[in-house]
Structure formats: structure tokens, C-alpha cells
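job 3f2a | input accepted
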Amino acid sequence: SLGQGAFAVAAAALVAKVVLPAPPVVQVGLPASLTQAVPTSLLANIALSLGAYVLAMRLIPAVREMFLRARMDGTDLNKKDPKPVIPEAMGLVAGAVYLIALFVFIPFRFAEFLEAGDFAHEKFVQYVCALLSICCMVLLGFADDVFDLKWRHKLVLPTIATLPLLLVYRATFGSTTVALPAALHETLGASLDLGFFFYIYMGMLAVFCTNAINIYAGVNGIEAGQSLAIALSAIAHNLLQIYVVATPAADHMLSLQLLLPFAAVTTALLQHNWYPARVFVGDTFCYFAGMTFAVVAILGHFSKTMLLFFLPQTFNFVFSLPQLFKIIPCPRHRMPRMNPKTGLLEMSKAIFPLSALSGPGRLLLSILKLTRIIAVNDSNPDAVEVGNMTIINFALYVLGPRHEARLALILIGVQVLCTVLAFSIRYGVASVVYERVE
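job 3f2a | predicted structure (438 res):
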């Protein structure tokens, strides 16, 4: 079976690592001016990532019927009748394969310390706690798919899952200072110690990352697609920091080695979730992806840069706030709706009586109508229509009806363009605002 095959591969890898000695680094076959030392652990990580991709590609369709028999399924509402029923929560499979790959990777990552006779206990604790936080969120995400947790639980659970990581950060690194722009040096100094508030910020980062991906959904391929784009952006940032900027590489190398297997299993999941989707990723994947990004940002010390990669998600979150806080009525599903005549997706709307709005709600409705940020039709006070406030519906409002696959490509394209903007800010604008940028 696939499970036995995965166990055999893992066992063989462990035995090979113990029996066969390996040099700590190898040299890449590039011109002398570009040659960089590539740790053996990174090569092993790349190999395991490729193995994780292959295993996820085979395992997802293999367990499809198992999920359907367990009634872990959902109806793809934006398809023509008869609407297909497909397995849900396949993020569980991606998360499980990811964790297997990183468990197998442990002896490869820490072999050099064993050979040197000076084991890096702090780095080992960081690594294990990173896996613990991610594993907790995979479990909690699956619980959400099964029990349909309330939003108040979705805000608390990521914070709890981050606590082990924050404690390890306090014990092994502990810095709570942030660099300030050069213009503030005369009044506030070069840096500011946030103290306990820094840990609150990192906990909120985990909450934001998990839920920002979770509410940016509703189109085949969009959850996995946006996550893959963010992961590749963070991988590029880590490579730049290690091999171009030449900052201390240990933290960025850890971040890179956590991200490569994630990108691999997400690519496999995206292929099965792309239009027409054969599986749904579920809240499990959104929690898994969000916590992975929070973990690598915290341990890699680039949380502000990670937030730059989340520009579309930040816009979607801020745009959604009026409905999330019930200022504007929020239906259970805010995904776009397919027009059965054209087969194209159109903006979905919230329909409610004007009397359902409070004073702030009526004020906001007037602002939305005046600015035309989203479609508003209040001609009938008994059935006011407001476009659901998500970036997906906003795109359909601006661009008009689109085919589902084309809409997903447009949204992922926007994610890539925002990545270019993020790199411009991180490596361009930041060098003007700050005296030193690493």
C-alpha cells in the first residue's frame, strides 16, 4: 500500500543516513564568482520535497473514495446540474505528507551537529516546536471541517497553537526590538523594544495568516493557488537573503527547509483542486498553510516581509470587515454564483430589508453607494441588495462575469503582481526609509 511504501522509503532514508557518511556541504557547479556552498541538508530537503510531491499526487486520489464513504464531502455549487459531490478536507492528506517529509528530514538536518560532537539543542527545539504548531493546526483545521466551528473558536485556536513556538522564541532568541525608520532616530532612537506587545503581535500574525487564507476562498484552486504563490515568494526571499544579501543564514535556511516541502505538497493538491476540482482542500488546508507561513516568518525573522506577501489577503480581510462584524448582513456563503445560462461566475449579493441595518450600517451603506466600491441597490427597502464584500466578488464587479478557471488565474496573477510590489518595497523602498536593510 501507499502507507507501507512511505514507511519503507522513510526507513531506507534513515538507514542510509546512519550507515553512509556524507560531507557537510557540496559545491554547486557554477562559475567561481557564483559558486555557493549548498548544505547537504538542503539537497536532502529538496529530494524529500520531490518525494512528498509524488506521494501526495498518488495519495489524494487513492483516499478519495474513503472520504466519500465517511461523508467528508461537499457539493461544488458553481457547476451545472447535476452538481458534483466531491471529497472535502483533502488538506489533511497534504498536511500529513508534509509532516512525514519533515520528520524523515530530522536526521539529515542535524547530522552535521552530531558529526561535530556539539548538538544544537536550541535549533532542534525550534524545529520540533515548529512541527508541533503546524501539526496542531492541521488537527484543529480538520476538527473545523468536521464540526464547523464558530468564528470565535477560529480566532482563539491559532493563538493557542502558536504558544509553544512563542515560548521557544523567548527562550532561544528573545529579541523584541524593531528597527525604526531613519527619520525617527533623533526622537525615538534606532530601534524600539516592544516587550510583551511583540509576542502579542506574533500571536496575532498566526491568527491573521490562518483566517486570511480561509476567507479568501470560493473558487476552484484559489486557496492552494494563493498559498503556492506566497510560498514561492517566501522561498525566493530566503534564497536572496542566504545567497545574495549574505545575512546570517541559519534562520533563513530553516525557513527555506520548512517551505520547500510545503510548496511540493501544495502543488500536488492544487493539481487535484484546479478547475474542475476533483477534491476540496477544506479548512484543514487553510489552517495548515496559514500556520506554516506564520511559523517560517517568526523563526526566519521576516514577519513584516511576510505581511507584504499577504497584500491581497490584507485587502480582502479589510474589505470583508463590515460583513464579518455584521455591520452589513453576511450570508453563510459569500462565494460568487454561476449563471446557468452562460456558465460564467457572477458577483453574489447579500439581500436584506433596510430595517435590518443599524445606524452605522445605514451610514456605511450610503458610503458604499456613493463611492461605488461594490454594487448597491436600495430601490426596494424590503430587499436591499449589496454585493458580498470579498476580493473575488470585487474582481467580478470590476471585470464582469468570468469563467471560473479564468477568474482563478486572474486572482493568482494579482497575487504574483503583489509579490513583485512586495519585493520592490522590501529591497527598494525600505533601503531609503531605513539606514540598514538586511
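job 3f2a | Confidence is low (pLDDT under 50) at residues 1-35.
job 3f2a | closed
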